[in-house]
Amino acid sequence: MEKRNDDEEEPTAEMTDHVDVTSEEIQKTQADPETAERFIAEKHIGDRIRRLRLKKSMGLVELGRHTGLSASFLSQLETGRVVPTLRNLARIAMVFSKDLSYFFESEPAAIFRVHRQKDRVRLPQTGVEPPTYTFESLGFMVPDRHMDPYFAEFIPMTGDTEPKAHVHPGFEFLYLLNGELELTHGEHQTVLAAGDSVYFDSATPHSYRCAGQTPAGAIIVTMHQPLQAQPSRSQAAGTSGPRPLSAGPQRANGSEDGAEGRF
User: Fold this and answer.
1) Could you read off the pLDDT of 69-126 as tens digits, one per residue?
2) What count of other Cβ atoms lies within 10 Å of the Cβ of residue 263?
3) Considering only CA atoms, which of 191, 189, 193, 157 is closest in space to residue 176?
4) DSSP code at position 165
5) In terms of C-beta density within 10 A (0-12 exposed, 13-18 middle, 19 or more buried), how is residue 17 classed?
6) For the segment 237-258, what is each residue's pLDDT rounded down to a tens digit?
7) What fold characterizes domain 117-237?
8) Which pTM does this prediction carry?
9) How many other CB atoms are found less than 10 A from the CB of residue 240?
10) Domain range summary for the chain, segments of one domain joined by +
Protein backbone atom coordinates (compact mmCIF):
# COMPACT_ATOMS: atom_id res chain seq x y z
CA MET A 1 0.00 0.00 0.00
CA GLU A 2 1.32 3.45 -0.91
CA LYS A 3 2.36 5.58 2.03
CA ARG A 4 0.75 8.98 2.46
CA ASN A 5 1.50 12.00 4.61
CA ASP A 6 -1.57 13.16 6.52
CA ASP A 7 -0.24 16.75 6.66
CA GLU A 8 1.03 17.18 3.11
CA GLU A 9 0.43 20.63 1.61
CA GLU A 10 0.18 21.53 -2.04
CA PRO A 11 2.23 24.58 -3.16
CA THR A 12 0.11 27.73 -3.43
CA ALA A 13 0.57 30.80 -5.56
CA GLU A 14 1.82 32.67 -2.53
CA MET A 15 4.57 30.13 -2.17
CA THR A 16 5.71 30.22 -5.81
CA ASP A 17 4.85 33.53 -7.46
CA HIS A 18 7.90 35.26 -5.99
CA VAL A 19 10.36 32.66 -7.32
CA ASP A 20 11.33 32.99 -10.94
CA VAL A 21 12.55 29.47 -11.73
CA THR A 22 11.61 26.85 -14.28
CA SER A 23 9.85 23.59 -13.38
CA GLU A 24 13.01 21.72 -14.34
CA GLU A 25 15.07 23.77 -11.84
CA ILE A 26 12.44 23.13 -9.15
CA GLN A 27 12.69 19.39 -9.72
CA LYS A 28 16.48 19.54 -9.40
CA THR A 29 16.28 21.30 -6.02
CA GLN A 30 13.47 19.21 -4.55
CA ALA A 31 14.28 16.35 -2.22
CA ASP A 32 13.91 12.96 -3.87
CA PRO A 33 10.64 11.42 -2.58
CA GLU A 34 12.16 7.93 -2.36
CA THR A 35 15.08 9.26 -0.32
CA ALA A 36 12.69 11.07 2.00
CA GLU A 37 10.60 7.92 2.46
CA ARG A 38 13.75 5.92 3.20
CA PHE A 39 14.89 8.52 5.73
CA ILE A 40 11.55 8.28 7.55
CA ALA A 41 11.55 4.48 7.40
CA GLU A 42 15.04 4.34 8.93
CA LYS A 43 13.77 6.18 12.01
CA HIS A 44 11.34 3.30 12.72
CA ILE A 45 8.78 5.78 14.08
CA GLY A 46 5.99 3.21 13.98
CA ASP A 47 8.07 0.66 15.86
CA ARG A 48 8.98 3.25 18.50
CA ILE A 49 5.31 4.16 19.02
CA ARG A 50 4.38 0.49 19.35
CA ARG A 51 7.19 -0.20 21.87
CA LEU A 52 6.11 2.76 24.00
CA ARG A 53 2.48 1.61 23.91
CA LEU A 54 3.23 -2.02 24.78
CA LYS A 55 5.58 -0.98 27.56
CA LYS A 56 2.61 0.77 29.17
CA SER A 57 0.32 -2.22 28.39
CA MET A 58 -1.85 0.20 26.44
CA GLY A 59 -4.18 -0.78 23.60
CA LEU A 60 -4.73 1.20 20.42
CA VAL A 61 -8.19 2.30 21.55
CA GLU A 62 -6.84 3.64 24.85
CA LEU A 63 -4.00 5.47 23.10
CA GLY A 64 -6.59 6.90 20.73
CA ARG A 65 -8.61 8.29 23.66
CA HIS A 66 -5.51 10.03 25.03
CA THR A 67 -4.40 11.47 21.69
CA GLY A 68 -7.71 12.13 19.93
CA LEU A 69 -6.61 9.88 17.06
CA SER A 70 -8.52 6.86 15.83
CA ALA A 71 -7.33 3.34 16.62
CA SER A 72 -7.25 2.49 12.92
CA PHE A 73 -5.06 5.51 12.16
CA LEU A 74 -2.69 4.61 15.01
CA SER A 75 -2.49 1.06 13.67
CA GLN A 76 -1.48 2.41 10.28
CA LEU A 77 1.16 4.58 11.97
CA GLU A 78 2.67 1.59 13.76
CA THR A 79 2.78 -0.51 10.61
CA GLY A 80 4.33 2.28 8.56
CA ARG A 81 1.43 2.72 6.14
CA VAL A 82 1.10 6.42 6.93
CA VAL A 83 3.56 9.09 8.00
CA PRO A 84 2.47 11.17 11.03
CA THR A 85 2.40 14.93 11.09
CA LEU A 86 4.49 16.65 13.73
CA ARG A 87 1.27 17.69 15.44
CA ASN A 88 0.02 14.12 15.77
CA LEU A 89 3.46 12.86 16.74
CA ALA A 90 3.60 15.50 19.47
CA ARG A 91 0.28 14.26 20.84
CA ILE A 92 1.68 10.74 21.09
CA ALA A 93 4.95 11.96 22.61
CA MET A 94 3.11 13.83 25.37
CA VAL A 95 1.14 10.74 26.36
CA PHE A 96 4.40 8.92 27.06
CA SER A 97 6.23 11.96 28.53
CA LYS A 98 8.71 11.99 25.67
CA ASP A 99 10.24 14.88 23.79
CA LEU A 100 9.39 15.09 20.10
CA SER A 101 13.06 14.50 19.29
CA TYR A 102 12.75 10.98 20.74
CA PHE A 103 11.26 9.76 17.46
CA PHE A 104 14.11 11.12 15.35
CA GLU A 105 17.17 10.34 17.41
CA SER A 106 19.41 7.61 16.07
CA GLU A 107 18.84 4.30 17.79
CA PRO A 108 21.95 2.72 19.33
CA ALA A 109 23.25 -0.23 17.38
CA ALA A 110 22.87 -3.59 19.09
CA ILE A 111 26.16 -4.87 20.47
CA PHE A 112 27.10 -8.43 19.60
CA ARG A 113 30.73 -9.60 19.65
CA VAL A 114 32.07 -13.13 19.59
CA HIS A 115 35.57 -13.70 21.00
CA ARG A 116 37.17 -16.87 19.73
CA GLN A 117 39.59 -18.58 22.08
CA LYS A 118 42.25 -18.67 19.35
CA ASP A 119 42.11 -14.87 19.06
CA ARG A 120 42.67 -14.12 22.74
CA VAL A 121 46.07 -13.18 24.13
CA ARG A 122 47.23 -14.35 27.55
CA LEU A 123 49.10 -11.68 29.47
CA PRO A 124 50.94 -11.75 32.80
CA GLN A 125 50.18 -9.52 35.77
CA THR A 126 52.26 -6.37 35.53
CA GLY A 127 54.07 -4.52 38.29
CA VAL A 128 54.79 -7.72 40.25
CA GLU A 129 57.80 -10.01 39.85
CA PRO A 130 57.22 -12.85 39.54
CA PRO A 131 53.58 -12.40 38.43
CA THR A 132 51.00 -14.20 40.57
CA TYR A 133 48.47 -14.65 37.77
CA THR A 134 47.93 -14.50 34.00
CA PHE A 135 44.76 -13.22 32.37
CA GLU A 136 42.86 -13.05 29.10
CA SER A 137 40.37 -10.29 28.29
CA LEU A 138 37.03 -11.73 27.20
CA GLY A 139 35.64 -8.39 25.99
CA PHE A 140 38.56 -6.63 24.30
CA MET A 141 36.66 -6.12 21.02
CA VAL A 142 33.70 -4.30 22.60
CA PRO A 143 34.07 -0.49 22.50
CA ASP A 144 32.81 1.67 25.37
CA ARG A 145 31.93 -1.40 27.42
CA HIS A 146 30.42 -1.01 30.89
CA MET A 147 32.03 -4.12 32.30
CA ASP A 148 35.29 -6.02 31.77
CA PRO A 149 35.17 -9.82 31.77
CA TYR A 150 38.38 -11.84 32.15
CA PHE A 151 39.65 -15.37 32.44
CA ALA A 152 42.41 -15.45 35.07
CA GLU A 153 44.72 -18.23 36.14
CA PHE A 154 46.36 -17.81 39.54
CA ILE A 155 49.80 -19.39 39.91
CA PRO A 156 50.88 -21.20 43.12
CA MET A 157 53.22 -18.90 45.04
CA THR A 158 56.54 -20.07 46.45
CA GLY A 159 58.27 -18.90 49.62
CA ASP A 160 56.82 -16.26 51.87
CA THR A 161 55.85 -13.86 49.09
CA GLU A 162 52.72 -11.92 50.03
CA PRO A 163 50.26 -10.94 47.29
CA LYS A 164 50.05 -7.19 46.69
CA ALA A 165 46.70 -5.61 47.63
CA HIS A 166 45.19 -3.19 45.13
CA VAL A 167 42.04 -1.11 44.55
CA HIS A 168 40.06 0.14 41.57
CA PRO A 169 36.69 1.88 41.27
CA GLY A 170 33.49 -0.10 40.91
CA PHE A 171 32.52 -3.66 41.76
CA GLU A 172 33.91 -7.10 41.03
CA PHE A 173 32.45 -10.56 40.57
CA LEU A 174 34.56 -13.73 40.60
CA TYR A 175 33.53 -17.32 39.85
CA LEU A 176 36.13 -19.97 40.56
CA LEU A 177 36.29 -22.64 37.85
CA ASN A 178 38.91 -24.91 39.37
CA GLY A 179 41.53 -25.05 42.10
CA GLU A 180 41.51 -23.13 45.37
CA LEU A 181 41.86 -19.39 45.77
CA GLU A 182 42.45 -17.31 48.89
CA LEU A 183 40.81 -13.88 48.72
CA THR A 184 41.59 -11.05 51.13
CA HIS A 185 39.16 -8.14 51.06
CA GLY A 186 39.80 -5.48 53.69
CA GLU A 187 39.58 -7.31 57.03
CA HIS A 188 37.92 -10.36 55.48
CA GLN A 189 39.80 -13.42 54.31
CA THR A 190 38.27 -16.52 52.75
CA VAL A 191 39.28 -19.54 50.68
CA LEU A 192 37.17 -20.27 47.59
CA ALA A 193 36.78 -23.72 46.06
CA ALA A 194 35.66 -24.65 42.53
CA GLY A 195 32.08 -23.49 42.02
CA ASP A 196 32.25 -20.76 44.66
CA SER A 197 31.66 -17.14 43.72
CA VAL A 198 32.11 -13.77 45.37
CA TYR A 199 30.83 -10.24 44.72
CA PHE A 200 32.50 -7.24 46.36
CA ASP A 201 33.26 -3.55 46.02
CA SER A 202 36.70 -3.21 44.50
CA ALA A 203 37.42 0.19 46.07
CA THR A 204 38.36 -1.78 49.19
CA PRO A 205 41.96 -3.14 49.09
CA HIS A 206 41.87 -6.76 47.97
CA SER A 207 44.32 -9.45 46.90
CA TYR A 208 44.39 -13.06 45.69
CA ARG A 209 46.59 -16.04 46.43
CA CYS A 210 46.45 -19.49 44.86
CA ALA A 211 45.76 -21.71 47.86
CA GLY A 212 46.51 -25.06 46.22
CA GLN A 213 49.37 -26.89 44.57
CA THR A 214 47.87 -26.43 41.09
CA PRO A 215 46.80 -23.21 39.33
CA ALA A 216 43.33 -21.85 40.08
CA GLY A 217 41.21 -20.67 37.14
CA ALA A 218 38.48 -18.06 37.48
CA ILE A 219 36.10 -15.90 35.50
CA ILE A 220 36.26 -12.31 36.75
CA VAL A 221 33.94 -9.44 35.80
CA THR A 222 34.68 -5.87 36.90
CA MET A 223 31.99 -3.19 36.73
CA HIS A 224 32.98 0.40 36.08
CA GLN A 225 32.14 3.15 38.53
CA PRO A 226 33.69 6.62 38.95
CA LEU A 227 35.97 7.14 41.92
CA GLN A 228 33.84 10.10 43.03
CA ALA A 229 31.14 7.66 44.12
CA GLN A 230 33.46 6.23 46.78
CA PRO A 231 35.76 9.11 47.81
CA SER A 232 36.50 8.01 51.37
CA ARG A 233 37.63 4.50 50.49
CA SER A 234 39.59 5.63 47.48
CA GLN A 235 41.35 8.33 49.45
CA ALA A 236 42.07 5.89 52.27
CA ALA A 237 43.60 3.51 49.76
CA GLY A 238 45.75 6.31 48.34
CA THR A 239 44.34 6.35 44.80
CA SER A 240 44.32 9.51 42.72
CA GLY A 241 42.75 8.30 39.48
CA PRO A 242 40.74 5.54 37.88
CA ARG A 243 43.75 3.33 37.09
CA PRO A 244 44.22 0.62 39.75
CA LEU A 245 47.50 0.03 41.52
CA SER A 246 47.88 -3.32 39.80
CA ALA A 247 47.18 -1.96 36.34
CA GLY A 248 47.40 -4.25 33.38
CA PRO A 249 49.35 -4.03 30.13
CA GLN A 250 49.95 -0.96 28.06
CA ARG A 251 50.25 -0.56 24.34
CA ALA A 252 53.66 -0.01 22.82
CA ASN A 253 53.01 3.74 22.61
CA GLY A 254 52.36 3.89 26.35
CA SER A 255 48.59 4.31 26.20
CA GLU A 256 46.30 2.05 28.16
CA ASP A 257 45.21 -1.07 26.39
CA GLY A 258 41.51 -1.98 26.42
CA ALA A 259 42.50 -5.42 27.69
CA GLU A 260 44.21 -4.21 30.87
CA GLY A 261 43.64 -6.29 33.97
CA ARG A 262 41.50 -4.35 36.44
CA PHE A 263 41.15 -6.98 39.14
Assistant:
1) 999 999 998 988 888 888 999 999 999 998 888 888 876 667 888 888 888 899 998 8
2) 23
3) 193
4) P
5) exposed
6) 443 333 333 333 333 333 334 4
7) Jelly Rolls (2.60.120)
8) 0.53
9) 8
10) 17-103, 117-237
